[in-house]
């Protein structure tokens, strides 16, 4: 799995968990060694299958990210990301931080990346499923889609690294929904994830810890799901607003030709 401030799948280490676990978690069978419990790995696979199995959905993540500055000061910033997806090949991604607002449109033929505050956009032709485009956006175009590893987990386009260890911590509830908390570890990254109980194991919370940095900064996100959204016919195609300016890197003409 890729590690980035906004992106990787990860959380607090098993030792850290032991020092501050809720009552339900303290009764969990914590492995004595770094082993990957098959049931915990199966839960991640159920999550990926559930996400890929929905015909359409909308999910909002509200997140905080710690950045380490000189003097080991950890500064926290917030962000929100909303994915609106219609399988197999329609998507918008709205990304807002304290200082920026970007929106990405993909309609099966063209992708447009829009700076909503600065009023500039770029557009280029691309095809493929949502999972394929998430992968290509990162590898071919340098677009960092937040949380893309969640959506690609276990799929053919996934390059996610298998955790080296993991176990079920215990049960809990988030917004009235029964969930199971899992803790995983891989080189340089620990993560916890709270998955809905049942076959459709959608993620409800994610905590990522960068264990390669001495200050161990964290990324924490919570998720709100709409399993039955209604999208307008033009929801996935960008229409420039008055004053929006095209930044052409030689792809605009090709994009226009396939619209």
Key attributes of the depicted protein:
single chain; outer membrane lipoprotein receptor (LolB), chain A; 6 helices; 12 strands
Describe the model:
This protein is an alpha+beta fold. It has one domain (14-257): outer membrane lipoprotein receptor (LolB), chain A (Clam). Helix content is 18%, strand content 38%. It has helices spanning 14-19, 23-26, 38-53, 130-139, 148-152, 252-257, and strands spanning 56-68, 74-86, 90-97, 101-106, 110-115, 120-125, 165-174, 177-186, 189-196, 203-210, 218-226, 245-246. It has a 12-stranded mixed beta sheet with strand order 7-8-9-10-11-1-2-3-4-5-6-12. A hairpin with a 3-residue loop joins strand 4 (101-106) and strand 5 (110-115).
């Amino acid at each position: 799995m890729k590690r980035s401030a906004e992106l990787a799948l990860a959380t607090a280490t098993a030792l850290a968990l032991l020092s501050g676990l809720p009552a339900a978690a303290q009764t969990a069978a914590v492995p004595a060694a770094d082993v990957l419990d098959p049931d915990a790995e199966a839960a991640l696979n159920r999550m990926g299958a559930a996400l890929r199995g929905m015909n359409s959905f909308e999910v909002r993540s509200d997140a905080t990210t710690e950045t380490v500055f000189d003097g080991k000061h950890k500064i926290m910033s917030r962000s929100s990301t909303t994915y609106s997806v219609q399988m197999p090949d329609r998507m918008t991604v709205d990304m807002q931080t304290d200082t920026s607002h970007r929106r990405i449109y993909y309609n099966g033929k063209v992708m447009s990346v829009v700076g909503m505050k600065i009023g500039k956009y770029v557009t280029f032709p691309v095809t493929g499923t949502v999972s394929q485009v998430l992968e290509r956006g990162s590898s071919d175009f340098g677009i960092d889609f937040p949380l893309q590893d969640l959506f690609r987990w276990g799929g053919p386009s996934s390059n996610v690294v298998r955790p080296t260890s993991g176990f079920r911590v215990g049960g809990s509830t988030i917004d009235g929904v029964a969930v199971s908390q899992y803790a995983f570890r891989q080189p340089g990254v620990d993560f916890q994830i709270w998955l809905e109980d049942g076959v459709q194991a959608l993620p409800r919370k994610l905590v990522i810890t960068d264990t390669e940095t001495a200050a161990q900064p964290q990324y924490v996100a919570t998720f709100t799901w709409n399993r039955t959204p209604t999208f307008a016919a033009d929801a996935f195609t960008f229409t420039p607003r008055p004053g929006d300016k095209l930044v052409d890197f030689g792809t605009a003409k090709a994009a226009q030709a396939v619209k």
